[in-house]
Amino acid sequence: MAVWVAVIAAAVVAVIGLCFGRVIEGSLAAEVGKWALMGLVVIGILEGFVYFLGPLIWHFTYGKRK
């Protein structure tokens, strides 16, 4: 599950970067590095939500039935 969240988030960040990104850094390498770092941060935030909220949601939906 976590791998697919990361893959989808990376694809969304890449598409947004390609469609709406502007080169504001001094070089293209710095711009690509900025987008890569931003993608890792977004993936980390989403993985945190999955890691912390997933078990909580499972507990409130399926855990109380047992």
Q: Please tell me the overall pLDDT.
A: 85
Query: Largest beta sheet, briefly?
Result: none
Would you count the extended β strands for me? 0
> Approximately how much beta-strand content do the residues carry?
under 5%
Straight-line distance between termini: 24 Å
Element-level helix/strand string = HH
Report the radius of gyration as a whole number of Å: 17 Å
Low-confidence parts lasting 5 or more residues at pLDDT below 50? Answer: none
The percentage helix is over 70%
Individual helix count: 2
Query: For this entry, what is the oligomeric state of its chains?
Result: single chain
Account of the protein in words:
By secondary structure, this protein is mostly helical. Helices cover 80% and strands 0% of the residues. It has 2 helices and no strands. α1 runs antiparallel to α2 (28-61). The longest helix is centred in the last third of the chain and has 34 residues, at 28-61. The chain is elongated, with a radius of gyration of 17 Å. The relative contact order is 0.14.
